[in-house]
Design a protein that fits this description.
Chain lengths: 191, 48
């Protein structure tokens, strides 16, 4: 720990229950809607493998364990849902369990271990505009590099008008069910 | 995404991990067979 570390000023505590927080993910999968993988929305981080706890690793400096107080590394979750409206290309919204070493911030957490608990597909354009209200998608577009983008009918039309033509369209309900079965998690019914 | 300043460090050692475990295969159940009756020995008295 460096002499300027903020760790010395922080309170510390212990717990036996994982913390639940809000989170968004990007989604990839095969053209038939199988092989689904949740991925961090930022960067080219590794996918979250189904049925395995995800462990944080720091990309900035591999010399410290993640999360580190003086870094931004760790698996992120937020207290409130609305802050996630600023995330880039969210495809899945959900609740995530966090445990191990967890650093609590003003607006969220950075954790050592995580696993999704509840999930729902969201139309990213609806989510950006209206947040928690009515961002249920109708279809999921399959794009290059196996990227999956859930969209409502109106935003599918808009995306196509601007040249974002999915190579294939899948039913959102089918993809969401496959996602829940892949990770053995429950649906996020209300938010 | 900016989540503000750090406030607290929590070390969480959960009693049970919030990760689903693969379902254990159900054990194959075979019908229970009753043991075949043993031949009665000549020295054993017959039932009344």
């Amino acid at each position: 720990m460096s002499p300027l570390s903020v760790a010395a000023d922080l309170r510390s505590s212990t717990g036996i229950e994982p913390i639940l927080a809000w989170r968004t993910w990007a989604l990839t999968g095969h053209r038939d809607g199988t092989g689904l993988l949740l991925r961090p929305v930022a960067g080219r981080s590794r996918p979250w493998k189904p049925m395995q706890p995800v462990e944080a690793a720091c990309k900035h400096a591999r010399l410290h364990a993640a999360p580190n107080v003086d870094c931004t590394c760790g698996l992120h979750g937020t207290h409130e849902l609305d802050i996630l409206r600023r995330t880039r290309c969210p495809a899945v919204l959900g609740r995530v369990a966090l445990w191990g070493r967890v650093i609590e911030h003003d607006l969220g957490y950075r954790a050592q271990y995580a696993y999704p608990q509840l999930a729902a597909l969201v139309c990213q354009f609806c989510f950006w505009q209206w947040g928690s209200h009515g961002s249920r998608p109708d279809v999921v577009g399959w794009f290059a590099r196996d990227a999956l983008m859930p969209l409502c009918w109106a935003h599918l039309e808009l995306a196509q008008r601007y040249g974002m033509e999915p190579r294939r369209l899948l039913q959102a309900d089918d993809v969401e069910l496959e996602l829940r079965e892949t990770y053995t998690i429950d649906p996020l019914v209300r938010w | 995404m900016d989540i503000g300043r750090p406030k607290r460090i929590i070390e969480i050692d959960p009693i049970s991990l919030p990760v689903p475990t693969p379902e254990m295969p159900s054990p194959v159940t075979e019908p229970v067979r009753e043991p075949a009756p043993q031949p009665r020995s000549p020295a054993e008295p017959a039932d009344p």
